[in-house]
C-alpha cells in the first residue's frame, strides 16, 4: 500500500472548511473513497458536502 495525501474542503453550517489527510491505500480512487467515508462516519456529512480537490502520492 502507498501513502496518499487527500486535500479538499467540506461544508459546515458556517461555510466551507479546508482539510488535508494522509492515509495508506492501494490506489488514488480508494484513498478518495476512504476519505469521504471517514468524513461521513466522523462528522455525519453526506458525500455531496465533501469536495476533494487533489489526491497525490506522498
From TrEMBL:
GO cellular component: ribonucleoprotein complex; ribosome
Quaternary state and interactors: Part of the 50S ribosomal subunit. Binds 23S rRNA.
The Large ribosomal subunit protein eL20 domain, residue ranges: 1-56
Molecular function terms, GO-annotated: large ribosomal subunit rRNA binding
GO biological process, one term: translation
UniProt name for this protein: Large ribosomal subunit protein eL20
Pfam families cross-referenced by the UniProt entry: Ribosomal_L18A
Gene: rpl18a
Keyword rRNA-binding: yes
NCBIfam families in the record: PRK00773.1-1
Keywords: Ribonucleoprotein, Ribosomal protein, RNA-binding, rRNA-binding
Natural source organism: Salinirubrum litoreum
Family stated for the protein in its record: Belongs to the eukaryotic ribosomal protein eL20 family.
InterPro entries linked: Ribosomal_eL20, Ribosomal_eL20_dom
Amino acid at each position: 500500500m502507498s501513502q496518499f495525501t487527500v486535500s479538499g474542503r467540506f461544508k459546515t453550517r458556517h461555510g466551507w472548511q479546508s482539510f488535508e489527510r494522509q492515509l495508506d491505500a492501494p490506489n488514488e480512487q480508494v484513498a478518495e473513497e476512504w476519505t469521504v467515508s471517514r468524513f461521513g462516519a466522523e462528522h455525519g456529512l453526506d458525500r455531496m458536502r465533501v469536495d476533494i480537490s487533489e489526491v497525490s502520492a506522498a
